[in-house]
Amino acid sequence: MLELWQAHAPNLGDAMLDSFVRTPLDIARELPNMREGDLLVGAFADDQVGYHRPFPGAGAYRTHLPGLYLCGASSHPGGNITGLPAYNAAQVILADLGLGADWMPAPIAAQLAAV
Questions:
Q1: C-alpha–C-alpha distance, residues 13 and 3, integer Å
Q2: SS3 string of 75-102?
Q3: What does DSSP assign to residue 105?
Q4: Which pLDDT score is estimated for 99?
């Protein structure tokens, strides 16, 4: 893999300080919620997509405990490096607190009206 990356970034090998490898078995042993080494913390099967992620009804990021929200990789839209579960949960939290998200773009209708 490193050789393939170096074809596009030749200085990568010299810039690396260290590296490690984990197998799916290693990941599952160290992080039990990552069953079978699944870095997305749950399959994207019919019962694990959208509003049903990580379980039916949990897609709105709120839990049954006031003030407790879901925002990890197991939350909608899933893990990886996107940060979207936390971004989406932050919007829900701010809405629940009656606060605006200053990072949100203006609604498209407002943007079009300004043109």
A1: 8
A2: CCCCCCCCCHHHHHHHHHHHHHCCCCCC
A3: P
A4: 92
Residue 33 has pLDDT above 80, yes or no: no
Higher pLDDT, 27 or 11: 11
Entry pTM: 0.58
What is the rounded CA–CA span in Å between residue 99 and residue 77? 23
Taking alpha carbons only, the member of 95, 78, 94, 87 closest to residue 34 is 78
| Residue 62 DSSP label | B
Per-residue DSSP letter, 4: H
What is the longest distance spanned by two Cα atoms in the chain? Answer: 55
Query: What letters, b where the CB count within 10 A reaches 16 and e where it falls short, cover 13-42?
Result: eeeeeeeeeeeeeebbeeeeebeeebeebb
| Model pLDDT for residues 49-95, shown as the tens digit of each residue | 677 777 777 888 998 889 999 888 778 887 766 788 888 999 999 99
Q: Give 46: exposed, middle or buried? Use CB within 10 Å, 0-12, 13-18, 19+.
A: exposed
